[in-house]
Specification:
With about 425 residues, the protein is α+β, with helices and mostly antiparallel strands. It has 8 helices and 24 strands. The strands form 5 sheets. A 9-stranded mixed sheet has the order 5-4-1-3-2-11-6-10-7, with helices on both faces. A hairpin with a 5-residue loop joins strand 14 and strand 15. The protein binds adenosine-5'-triphosphate. The site of adenosine-5'-triphosphate has 23 residues, from helix 5.
């Protein structure tokens, strides 16, 4: 069925604004003008490795039936984007896209490409021409890349996010949301809402000067109203909006045959064998190498993943794991979560001496010696032993809430047994 679609992206900067807030202001203006949208407004997260993203690489879209005042809707959108975007920031290059018709298979392919890989402004512009979409570029107009994708993205699995916005005079000021109320809300509504807290860390609260006071994520919109009523914001909420979104669906994760087929700036599920014991470098980042018959890749659990590094450190050479994550700027695979497929519980150790102590090497090809009683053995052969492992085969392990990507599907949504 034909609808009128609106896509908006790239209106904010690290210093302020948020495309969802702009969208929410537009929706309020629509309401004042008796313009109704179909379903919920959508917040679509795109490639987490896109080079010009401000934070979470999200674009926004809405859908209107053709009996709405389309001319007025367009006028309102362009007016708001041109007035409220953060034009002073070099990296803010808003794009608005209007499209009338059905979402075609080529549009779906385009949106998946925007999630899986990198698209240029020229490519987006050419594609808009092919589908007959009307584009509005502000400055460089990079936002059209995400706007077309936000319109076109299919949502088979989806979640909802309620975003509460601050009064404008509070923008940039410290948020003082009552922690205990969020704790209670989480206790009452989890797992239908999720990612609310992480110990004492308030995950619903952004740490940036943007207009968002908090965002609560959930599997259904009904529970969000209940959660909203429970959270004590300790300041006036100017407005709130519920978005339907591809957040926490793993939509960015592609299946891939082998390591050699993986590309930089894309995200995958990849099975391989751990080559070496994970090690930490300066800054607290943890690395190990994963290999298969085609190639090998360096894998990382960076410092912000905190306690996840402890879990990763339990991996050993010979373990078979399935990793979820993506290849970033350093060409390293950033792990979001992993499943243990097969644990190597065999280790080769120096023999135990008759006196009960572990022997040490007597030198290359010289066998072993016991430092305790002086006994020597000529053979260099180490002894095979089985060790108890602190990981479980079949189990998934994920990064903590504080370090999780918007698109990463938390284990609580994976319907695991
Ligand atoms: P916020 O999350 O605060 O809304 P953001 O992280 O979404 O900000 P934007 O300001 O929207 O960042 O900037 C992201 C830019 O990257 C947009 O111009 C968007 O069109 C573009 N973009 C999105 N996906 C891709 C992609 N796959 N390849 C290239 N550019 C992309």
């Amino acid at each position: 069925m034909d609808y009128f679609y609106i896509g908006i992206d790239d209106t904010d900067s690290p210093d302020g604004m948020c495309t969802t807030y702009l969208a929410s202001s537009i929706l309020n203006e629509f309401e004042r003008n008796a313009i109704e949208i179909e379903d919920f407004p959508r917040l679509i997260r795109l490639n987490p490795f896109a080079p010009f993203k401000t934070r979470g690489n999200g674009g926004v879209s809405f859908k209107l039936s053709l009996d709405q005042d389309i001319a007025l809707a367009k006028e309102i959108v362009l007016d708001y984007v041109s007035r409220l975007s953060m034009f002073d920031c070099e990296n803010t290059n808003p794009g608005v896209v209007f499209y009338k018709g059905e979402i075609t298979p080529s549009m779906v392919d385009y949106s998946l490409k925007a999630i899986y890989s990198i698209i240029s402004i020229e490519e987006a512009e050419e594609f808009a021409g092919e589908i007959g979409a009307e584009i509005h570029k502000f400055k460089k107009g990079r936002g059209i890349i995400g706007s077309i994708a936000a319109i076109s993205c299919p949502l088979e699995d989806y979640t909802y996010e309620l975003l509460a916005y601050r009064e404008s005079e509070k923008f940039g000021q410290l948020r003082k949301i009552d922690y205990d109320s969020v704790y209670e809300m989480d206790k009452e509504t989890f797992p239908e809402t999720f990612e609310n807290i992480d110990g004492k860390y308030l995950a619903i609260e952004p740490k940036t000067p943007c207009p968002v006071l908090y965002g609560i994520r959930a599997n259904n919109p009904e529970v969000l109203k209940k959660a909203y009523d429970m959270v004590v914001p300790n300041e006036n909420i100017a407005d709130f909006q519920i978005f339907k979104t591809n957040q926490h669906t793993d939509m960015h994760i592609q299946d891939v045959e082998c390591i050699a087929d993986m590309k930089q700036y894309s995200c995958y599920k990849i099975r391989g064998e751990v080559k070496d014991k994970p090690h930490v470098i300066e800054g607290g980042h943890m690395f190990f190498t994963l290999f298969d018959e085609s190639s090998e890749i360096e894998c990382a659990a960076y410092e912000p993943t905190k306690s996840f590094r402890k879990t990763v450190s339990k991996l050993s050479a010979g373990d078979v794991v399935e990793l979820y994550g993506g290849i970033g700027r350093e060409n390293t695979f950033n792990i979001e979560k992993f499943q243990v497929i097969d644990l190597n519980d065999v280790v080769y150790k120096n023999p135990i001496c008759q006196c009960g102590k572990r022997m040490t090497s007597a030198g290359r090809n010289k066998g072993f010696k016991c430092k305790h009683c002086g006994k020597t053995i000529k053979s260099d052969e180490k002894i095979k032993e089985h060790v108890k492992r602190d990981l479980t085969e079949g189990m998934f392990y994920e990064t903590p809430v504080s370090a999780r990507r918007h698109l990463a599907k938390p284990l609580i949504r994976m319907n695991l047994d």
